[in-house]
Amino acid sequence: MIHPDSFARFARPPDHDQANVSRGVARASPPLAREEYFITTKCPPATLAAARKCVADNLAELDVPYVDLLLVHWPASAH
Description:
two-stranded parallel ribbon, 2 helices
């Protein structure tokens, strides 16, 4: 099982940003079924409306119908 961990705003390493994760999955040979990879992404703590937008944006950037793990957090240095 492949387990990419991504988030657009603080992707480390840079190749784990959501666009690169999406491209990598799309280019896999042989093609990967969605069940073959486990995607983790993140959203900062916020209002419900902002959280919904963050999730929708992540799904669009990753080009997937769902993520397997959504972490709600923000790096400590941002506060």
